[in-house]
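Continuing the batch. This is chain 6 of the set; chains 1 through 5 are on the previous pages. Same settings as before, nothing changed between runs. Recording input and output for traceability.
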Amino acid sequence: MTLTPVIVFLMMVSVSWALLFERSSPIASADDRAIAESCLALADQGSCEFYSCFESRLPCGREWYMLRTGHYYCNKMQRQKPNFSLAGQRFIEDAQRCLTQSLKDEYRLDDIDCHTLEHQAVDSITPCFINNDFCNAFRTDAAQFFRVYEFSDLFTRGAGKIWRQIVNMAAQCGGAAAREITSDTSETVINTVNTFFDSLSRGVGK
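Output for chain 6:
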C-alpha cells in the first residue's frame, strides 16, 4: 500500500464517519465562571489537566474536543513518553506545551461554539508538531507514535481529523517518514477495518 491510497482511505473513512454521526454544535458558556490563573499556568506547563480545567469553565461535553480528543491523546502521549527516545521526549514536552498554550485565548472567552473550538484546536496540531521537530522525532520513534495514535481510534468521533494531520505531516517529512507510516499502517488498516465491518454485520444480524 503506497502513501497516497493511505491518505485517501483515511479521508474517506473520517468523512463517512462524520456523516454517520453528525452532531449539532453546542455553545459553551462560562456563565460567570472566572478565568483561573492556575488554569492558564497549566497551559504554560503543557499539562494535560489544562483540558479538564478548560472544560470546567467552558463545558462542551464529553463528546467534544477537550475531553474526547485533547485530554485523551495528551494522557496517552504521557503514558507512552518513557518509551520514546530523548529527542522524542523533548518533542512531546515542547509540542504539548504549544498545543495547550495555543488555546489560552479561547479559554479567556465568555462563550464559544464547540465545533469552532474543535477546528481551532485541531488546526494548531500541525504547526505545533512541525515547529517542534516532529519529522526527526517521527523518524526515530514511529512505532511509539502508532502506540499513541492507534488506527482503531479512527473510528471514534473527531479522531479522523487527528489522523489526517499525522499522515499529512509524515508525508511532508519526506521519504523515510512516509515509508514508516505506510508500513506501520497497511496491515493495521486491513485488520481494523475487517473488525469494524464484522461488528457492523453482527449488529445488523441481531
